[in-house]
Amino acid sequence: GAVVSQHPSRVICKSGTSVKIECRSLDFQATTMFWYRQFPKQSLMLMATSNEGSKATYEQGVEKDKFLINHASLTLSTLTVTSAHPEDSSFYICSARDRSVGTEAFFGQGTRLTVV
Amino acid sequence: DQQVKQNSPSLSVQEGRISILNCDYTNSMFDYFLWYKKYPAEGPTFLISISSIKDKNEDGRFTVFLNKSAKHLSLHIVPSQPGDSAVYFCAASLSGNTPLVFGKGTRLSVIA
Question: How confident is the model over A35-63, as pLDDT tens digits?
């Protein structure tokens, strides 16, 4: 099946610094990728839709200047958390759908971000 | 307003018995439904799906039932195994390359 790889799996950063998370589709081309955030014991909340070659579409309440998304190629999307604060600590997950295979979405392994 | 609801946050089942996880949705435009399994600090893993034109899909120990008139679907796991212990998310999809809409998840504990 299709594979989505996310890196890093875990990162600890100081408050005020920026962190970049990469999401790659390894064996298929993804014109669209999705970024989710999961708080403890809660569901996966969609943050934004990353579109290859164009601007990302952000969900209501998500600061586009804080969560920068770049989808430079058909296999790579990046999420940069800028000027991170402790409240940004969370579990971030990317996903992509390979329409040639089926309708299910494949998820990366997730990134546990801790801002200290 | 939650479009996909999993009203049971947790479920405990004895090993060998059937586990039934429920999910309700409100948007009648959803045309595809999926179940994902998730362990802590990992991404969700796809389990099984069903198209809105079907009412049942079976894959090994996992069966998903869809009742469109009630806007309800359920995941049956039989027999349940300790390794099935995880959080199960129900998700729904509109046609096209749109993001999945997730329920809040149900934590399943299978007791040996």
Answer: 999 987 778 899 999 888 888 999 999 99
In B70-109, the residues whose Cβ lies within 8 Å of chain A are: 89, 91, 93, 97, 99-105
The burial of A105, by beta-carbon neighbours within 10 Å (0-12 exposed, 13-18 middle, 19 or more buried), is given as: buried
Tokens 């940069």 — which residue? A80
Q: Name which of A6, A49, A104 is nearest B43 (Cβ-Cβ).
A: A6
Give the phi and the psi of residue A58 in degrees, each rounded to 5. Answer: -100, 145
Q: Closest Cα of chain B to A96: distance in Å? A: 9
Distance from CA of A45 to the nearest CA of B (A): 8
- The C-alpha torsion from A11 through A13 and A16 to A20, rounded to 10°, is -30
User: Tens digit of pLDDT for each residue in B26-53?
Assistant: 999 999 999 999 998 888 998 999 999 9
Residues with Cβ within 8 Å of A12's Cβ and at least 6 positions away in sequence, in order, are A114, A115, A116
* Pairwise CB contact (< 8 Å): A103 & B103: no
